[in-house]
Design brief:
heterodimer; A: alpha/beta; Rossmann fold; 4-stranded antiparallel β-sheet; 46% helix; disordered C terminus; B: alpha/beta; Transcription Regulator spoIIAA; 5 strands; elongated
Amino acid sequence: MKRDTDDRCDDDIVVRVRGLANRFGEQAVHENLDLEVRRGEILGVVGGSGTGKSVLMRSIIGLQTPAEGEIAVFGEPMIGRDETEAKNVRRRWGVLFQGGALFSTLTVAENVQVPLREYYRRLDQRLLDEIATYKVAMSGLPPEAGPKYPSELSGGMKKRAGLARALALDPELLFLDEPTAGLDPIGAAAFDELILELKATMGLTVFLITHDLDTLYAICDRVAVLADRKVIAIGTIEELLALDHPWIQEYFNGPRGRAAAGGDQDLGRAEREEGPRLREQQRQAEAGQVQAQGAEGVAR
Amino acid sequence: MSGATFTQDGDVLRLSGAVTLARLGDLPERLEALSPPPARIDLSGIDRIDTVGAWVIHRFARERSVPVEGADKDTERLLQQVAAGDRQPQVRPERPAPALRVADQVGGAAIRAFGTGIGLVGFFGGVLVAFWSLLRHPKRLRGHAIIRQFEVVGVEALGIIGLMSFLIGIVIAQQGAIQLRQFGAEVFTINLVGRLTFRELGVLMTAIMVAGRSGSAFAAQIGSMKLAEEVDAMRTIGVSPMEALVVPRVLAAIVVMPLLGFYAAIIALIGGGLFSWLSLDIPPITFVTRIREVVPITDVYQGLVKAPVFGAIIAMAGCFQGMLVEGNAEEVGLRTTAAVVQSIFLVIVVDAFFAVFFAQIGWI
């Protein structure tokens, strides 16, 4: 395989978390949590509110120093590394935060260029502009979105722009924090499709926090369930369904879970066929929104 | 792992190594410098490729109209992917010519300033209407909220305003004494401190402090409530935001400002008196007697008349800017700044009018 894989890390575990503990004062969010993310998979992370899904992600990407435990990404231990070493690992992943977390003083295209400028100062301006432009296009944004400021974009477009920035360095590993939350069903389905497509072309490994059952069924290879301060189960949805844990049963066999599961077989096929069409519709709808918002901006 | 490079084999360009962002090196420049263009590009020798490498190859192939061959399935897919994103790069919004932009900004600022002025007058009217309706239905007055604002605007400000006034009293006395000493008229320092603090500085400095402390807080509180749709929720439930949020704050500021202004003037006198005692050897009893002789009661009235007006201005500017917040959190910061700037500016303008007015009616 010619993908940009790492030679230093020959085993197939991209993220390895061992015995992780996170505490905020008296309250323990994680105790003795273990998790492994395999190369090339889309791992969904689910759990009730307050079970520490985001804290887990923040621990892995180094925004939160855990009380105990080991975290290794690409086989490199992440805790207690100095800044330069951590930077070398950091450039190999991309993170999409919940609200997009775009820099509000920069345009979308400039946002995409920030990581490129930070790590590869020698790139000339023309190449930078071109890279930003095709990354914006790859994220499914219309051409006129590049020179727009984040405040002029809708929530769904901000997420796509955030994804474009997360993909700026051609990462091997992508962290997504509730990418489809707050999107309409068409937009969410299009986003799922986009992740699958990017995974296929770029060989991504994806760590995906979500509440969206449709997303779980549609794109996740494995699902990790967070409860009782640890990962209580990890596996394909079929494997999880075979388990006898009340929360898992209620989660996947509740009315919404059944609806998502029931639609899956049909949906999977429908999405493959309809996906491009839906995406085109979504793109046009969003393009209309940009224009409307642009006009509003002028009026203001 | 070797970086991206190429060899020329007759009219075939053979790329090799890792054609990735990290290993790109000066490949784009060297490709650029290539002439004449090759007839074909052969990718069978590359180790790795990512979207940036694919883009560089795609761009070269497009610009020189050279066919690409030898790409495996993954590389082919990457090339298609970046080709699909090949658009005219545009990174910044188009901007008009500089001269036009200056005119545009000046005009825009003028229109905005005018709009703000109109809005402020409208808001003033709204507050009056709310006051009037509360006068007719006093039961709707929110006693608890008003008392709470008294505490926040008044009581909690006593410390900082006291300290500020004390220091200002000392500074006036000290600067005045230096100048008056040249005429041997150091004793007039008392006149300076007494009249200045009661007429002007006591109230004015208090107004500036209240604008910074409370005017900004009003804008930020109401602004974040607007963002969280709390204000809309109030309207839906049938609670008037004017009555619930604005009136208590305006009322508190109107009532508290004269008290704070008088307090500030007294503390400034204490500061000035202390300086006169320690540095000019004027005993406190003389200081007090002289103050009673030289400060006419109209000076005290002036301060007390101006203070509630300043309070109303500060509270209304703060609440007005808070109500204007919409969109994002950045707006709250901008509006808070605008509230402070606007209220201090208006306070000073109104103070100038008062100065002329009082002179005209003989309160000199």
